[in-house]
Amino acid sequence: MSINYQLSRFYRAYAKADQIAPSTLPEVVFAGRSNVGKSTLLNALLGNKNLAKTSSKPGKTATINFFEVPGCYYVDLPGYGYAQVSKSERENWAKLINGYFEQDRRLALVVSLVDIRHPANKLDVQMERFLMDHGFPFAVVLTKADKIGKQVRQRQVGVLREGLGLPETTPMLITSATDKTGIREVRSMIEKAVREA
Questions:
Q1: Closest to 61 measured CA to CA, from 36, 93, 100
Q2: Which of 32, 34, 65, 187 could bond to 59 as cystine, CB 3.0-4.6 Å?
Q3: What is the 8-class DSSP label of residue 118?
Q4: 37, 61 in Cβ contact below 8 A?
């Protein structure tokens, strides 16, 4: 049974981890660097370009945002690694993200977003290592594929898998929120994870 995304809605934003309501439904978590296109991809998946707030300036999401989707929650974590905010603000984001993962949540899947155009970043490597070390179910979704040619995309998959230190068993999907590449595949993967959670 597929999800009716038209029924999706913004649920709540949390500025502190200890304020987050207990987990009642499977949660699909979206994590990635500040400029990876997280909000844009979320809107493409939810079929509503205005649901998650997008901005031309990275680092605007300073809260954990929950979106109620039939049968689950999409959880939008603050983007990490944006240099042009204060150190204390970056530390607050890290505390918020770690605080979320330390809770007893019904984690169906962590969708780890990585920009397909660039080599593996140190922060991306740390995130994948964190997910693997804690045994969280996760997949890597490569964003902004419309910015490069199709042959380069396939080459980048191999380069990034190696750079991130990922085994072949870790799903890695190519997407573009602009031309909708991979959106259906990511939805299918999420729906399967939610069913099995």
A1: 93
A2: 34
A3: S
A4: no
Task: Give dist(CA 76, CA 46) in Å, integer.
Answer: 13
- Quickly list H helices, the chain: 38-46, 87-101, 122-133, 150-164, 183-196
Domain boundaries, the chain: 5-196
Q: How far is CA 77 from the centre of its chain?
A: 7
49 Cβ contact partners less than 8 Å away, ≥ 6 residues apart = 43
Cβ-defined contacts of 123-126 (< 8 Å, 24+)? 123/33, 123/80, 123/81, 124/32, 124/33, 124/164, 125/163, 125/164, 125/165
Residue 134 identity: H
Q: Which token pair is 57?
A: 């300036």
Which SS3 state, helix, strand or coil, does residue 7 take?
helix
Q: Dump pLDDT digits (tens) for 143-188.
A: 999 999 999 999 999 999 999 999 999 999 999 999 999 999 999 9
Distance CA 156, CA 164 (A): 12
CA 121 to chain CA centroid, nearest Å: 16
**Predicted local confidence at residue 166, as pLDDT:** 96
Instruction: Decide if domain 5-196 falls under CATH 2.40.240.20.
Output: no
